[in-house]
């Protein structure tokens, strides 16, 4: 919620400098992209926790209840397995980035912000989503009985 306010302030600043001062501030663009990424990643974990994901269930509603329960378990299982794979792949990348104190020099030598911490945001988000699938799976299995 607060990140949306911060993103708004950064974008207003960037638009103001671009239109009123006729100079685009690449740092503001860079920061807004980072903030959007964090909002998306952490927002996905929050939305899963709150059960707020939207799904198209045209066929899902027409299949028998037993098949729906099986589909729910398979669906959550796919999210869990995908999360484990992403963590196993992403954590070493984030760790290496942390160890070398990686910076983004694509904006030039003057502005080269550290990005090692940002890679951990993705890993932490996937860990949160993956951990949330465990109680969801247990609940679906309990409903199966």
TrEMBL record:
Residue stretches spanning the membrane? 28-49, 70-95, 115-138
Q: Name one Pfam family in it.
A: DctQ
The UniProt keywords, alphabetically, are:
Cell inner membrane, Cell membrane, Membrane, Transmembrane, Transmembrane helix, Transport
Q: Enumerate the subcellular locations listed in this protein's record, separating them with semicolons.
A: Cell inner membrane
How does it sit in the bilayer? Multi-pass membrane protein
Sequence ranges assigned to domain Tripartite ATP-independent periplasmic transporters DctQ component in this UniProt record: 7-142
Q: Name one GO cellular component term.
A: plasma membrane
Tree of life domain: Archaea
Q: What is this protein called?
A: TRAP transporter small permease
Native source species: Thermococcus argininiproducens
* The organism's taxonomic lineage, starting at the top: Archaea, Methanobacteriati, Methanobacteriota, Thermococci, Thermococcales
């Amino acid at each position: 919620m607060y990140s949306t306010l911060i993103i708004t302030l950064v974008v207003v600043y960037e638009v103001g400098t671009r239109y009123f001062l006729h100079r685009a501030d690449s740092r503001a663009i860079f920061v807004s992209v980072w903030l959007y990424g964090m909002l998306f990643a952490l927002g996905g974990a929050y939305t899963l926790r709150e059960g707020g994901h939207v799904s198209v269930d045209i066929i899902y509603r027409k299949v028998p209840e037993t098949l729906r329960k099986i589909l729910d378990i398979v669906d959550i299982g796919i999210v869990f397995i995908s999360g484990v794979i992403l963590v196993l792949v992403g954590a070493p990348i984030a760790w290496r980035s942390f160890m070398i104190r990686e910076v983004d020099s694509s904006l030039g030598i003057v502005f080269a912000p550290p990005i090692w911490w940002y890679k951990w945001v993705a890993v932490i988000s996937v860990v949160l989503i993956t951990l949330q699938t465990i109680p969801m799976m247990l609940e679906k299995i309990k409903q199966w009985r």
